[in-house]
Amino acid sequence: MQSKFKALSLSFKNAPVAIRELVSLDEGAVRSLLGKLREFFSLTDTLILSTCNRTEIYYSHELDLSTEIIKLVGLEKGLVDTISYLEYFDIFHDDKTAISHLFRVAMGLEAQVIGDMQISNQVKRAYQTAVDMDMAGPFLHRLMHTIFFTNKKVVQETAFRDGAASVSYAAVELIEELTSNTHQPRVLLVGLGEIGEDVAKNLVYLGDAKIKIANRTYSKALELATEYNFEAIPFEDCFEAMKEADVIISSVAMSEPLISKQLISSFNIKSYKLLVDLSVPRSIDTAVEDLPGVLLYNVDNIRSKATETLSKRKAAIPHVENIIVENIKEFYDWKKEMMVSPTINKLKNSLEQIRKEELERYLKNADSQQFDIIDKMTKSMMQKILKVPVVQLRAACKRDQAEEMIGIINDLFDLEKEEVKKTDH
């Protein structure tokens, strides 16, 4: 339980997307890497978090294994000269910085979009994988449950998770609100640039929606459609698909609008048609708003909503950080108790062994009544003798001097020798 929890982190802050893609780990790769870490380094308490914005490995070990772990990531991904990627990683060498970083990541303070709601679920999945692989010991179990409790407090007590703070997520949230009364709304996304791709990833949260995606490069549409269980259609078929769609999201770069008033007026709109223009310059003619049943939202409307949410989230950051500090302190109180518990148990066992040996030596001929009285008296004596070192150990924890006090008590009562004798028997 000493200060041996460490972490290495590659994220959008230091690494471009091309590098993040190279080291990104899917679930199979995470499980494989966890297995290798256990096999090569006998690691327990290990967590691997890999998202589109970050790949992080948290682990407990006396030594700094950063270089070895990065080499294993390279082996898993089939990369050569993996050490050249070391410059993109932040290394957290001690438990205080590693634990603090994990709390900040799990709360969304380190996310590309502050307060990202997806990250807490991604952290939970990473923990579940560690549990499934038998890579979570008492330390990691307690740490993760403290994080989940902290996250719950952040949600209940702050505005840090309110609303959608990214344009892409705000767009999907808007679509969800406006299609809430439509059974299996038909959604068409045209264009898979940076924003379009991000929208596609968020569309999975629309539940029962039927989603089609179109892109000038069909292979990209097909790749995303396969990953998220959407339907990919050729770009030239998107105008035909617009007729049936309840929602059309346009995210294409064009000098002239892709969707004109004339095009939309040719459709038979039975109830409504929601158009969301995420392009700059705009790719939907604003005149479509004049048509009955047509609702048009552009990137400025949506960005305004996201910016307002982001301002509220930023204002909540000090409160979130205070909650984190409080809960990290509680975790450390537990951690300190765990540090001294083995020594307390060793001392109890050692004294109990002495007591039993002396009872056997001197009470061979005693009757049961005499034995019970002396047994009770010596137990009481042992508890009183134990009280002072136990109190001193716990006080040393609060002063961050537990290791020093553990060493003194080990030497004073020769506990290491006692442990060896016990093992030999």
What does this protein structure show overall?
One of its GO terms (molecular function) is NADP binding. Residues 9-158 form the Glutamyl-tRNA reductase N-terminal domain. This protein is α/β, with parallel strands linked by helices. The protein has three domains: 4-162, Glutamyl-tRNA reductase, N-terminal domain (Beta Polymerase, domain 2); 167-292, NAD(P)-binding Rossmann-like Domain (Rossmann fold); 333-413, no CATH class. Helices cover 57% and strands 12% of the residues. The protein is built from 15 helices and ten strands. It has helices spanning 17-23, 27-41, 66-77, 95-107, 118-132, 138-157, 167-178, 194-202, 218-228, 238-244, 261-265, 299-362, 368-398, 402-413, 415-424, and strands at residues 5-11, 47-50, 54-60, 89-92, 186-190, 210-215, 231-234, 247-250, 273-277, 294-298. The strands form two sheets. The chain has a six-stranded parallel beta sheet, with helices on both faces. Strand 2 and strand 3 (54-60) form a beta hairpin. Helix 2 packs across helix 3, helix 4 crosses helix 12 (299-362) and helix 6 crosses helix 12. It starts with a strand and ends with a helix.
Q: How do the helices and strands follow one another from N- to C-terminus? A: EHHEEHEHHHHEHEHEHEHEEHHHH
Helix content: 55-70%
Q: In the CATH hierarchy, what is the architecture of the largest domain at level 2?
A: 2-Layer Sandwich
What is the mean predicted local confidence, pLDDT? 88
Number of domains: 3
Low-confidence stretches: none
Distance from N terminus to C terminus (CA atoms, Å) equals 27 Å
Tally of contiguous helical segments = 15
**SS class:** alpha/beta
Name of the level-1 CATH class of the largest domain: Alpha Beta
Q: Which fold name is given in CATH as the topology of the largest domain?
A: Beta Polymerase, domain 2
Tell how many strands the DSSP assignment holds: 10
CATH homologous superfamily annotation of the largest domain: Glutamyl-tRNA reductase, N-terminal domain
Largest sheet, in brief, is:
6 strands, parallel
Rounded Rg: 30 Å
Strand coverage percent = 5-15%
What is the spatial order of strands in the main beta sheet?
7-6-5-8-9-10
